[in-house]
Amino acid sequence: MKRDMKAWLEALRDAPVKKAMPILSFPAVQLMGITVRQLISSAEAQAQAMELVAERTDAAASVSLMDLSVEAECFGSEIRVSDEEVPTVVGSIVADETQARALEVPAVGAGRTGLCVEAIRKAAGRITDRPVFAGAIGPFSLAARLMDVTEAMVLCYDEPDMVHILLEKSTRFITDYCRAFKEAGANGVVIAEPVAGLLSPALEEEFSAPYVKRIVNAVQDDSFLVIYHNCGGAVIRQIDSILSTGAAAYHFGNAIDMAEMMPHIPAHTVAMGNVDPAGEFRGGTPESIRAATWKVMEACREYPNFVISSGCDIPPLSRWENIDAFFAAVAEFYAR
Questions:
Q1: What is the DSSP letter of 304?
Q2: Rounded to 10 degrees, what is the CA torsion of 218, 219, 225, 231?
Q3: Structure pTM?
Q4: What is the mean pLDDT of residues 189-213?
Q5: I want to staple 139 with a disulfide (CB 3.0 to 4.6 A). Which of 5, 24, 170, 274 is the partner?
Q6: 3-state helix, strand, coil in the chain (%, to 5)
Q7: Cα-flanking dihedrals φ and ψ of residue 50, to 5°?
Q8: Phi and psi torsions of 274, nearest 5°
């Protein structure tokens, strides 16, 4: 369903009582009685998962799976899949500049990308009471997976030309992927760039922000927003460069203190975060998640442009009593 997303974001920012916007899809496997392996292999299952979450929660938007293996797999990477955990990339497929130049950019639709686009098409047709956001990996995070995440930072120094070649190809593919989501009816995309959060500010400014900006410039408009996600610990030191990407909103992980981040965010720009997904949603209790949620909201209450969220994608086996407690805590906080 097409929306004026600029107006939606402004209304979210200006509302005295704001709806939470966690990155929440994978835990639907528990409601559906299926495995993560089954969820990631079916467009219908993914659409149903988004529907079930929308029916159960009063989230500001419906956000699809944050599966950061999809794009790398499409390029040819091996992935490890299990019944209970989010898929991960294994090893690397590019070791030098020659291999980087030879690497072909796949068409959107290869691997599971076509399945993910179809899932968004189905979900966008069924979820009409709130925006639907697709999920995609960021350019540096994709390039790092192609050349091995543990080597990525070293290669920025030792083989910068190779890294830029991969970034060009990653950016081209992600741009086409976002356009496919847009055509399928998504109201926006959450672009996850977590590996960039490990870089120094200078490296992030060279190897991430300009490429994210190109994607934003190519796909963002009043009807389709880009939300930039980075759960790295260096994001406060990188924030000027991150803001230069021009994304409509920003989402940060629990590696940082949101109260320290908010003074760096322009008053007209929405920033989201950052209740610990593993420690609280997955490993906490209803009581602890209430306390953690209130702590973040209390610390950021003087910033009208702050929206409470999870720090990252909520793990598949996070207990629903914890997820329900998060939403209850948000409602209780605003009802005080």
A1: T
A2: -70
A3: 0.97
A4: 97
A5: 170
A6: 55, 15, 35
A7: -65, -40
A8: -155, 50
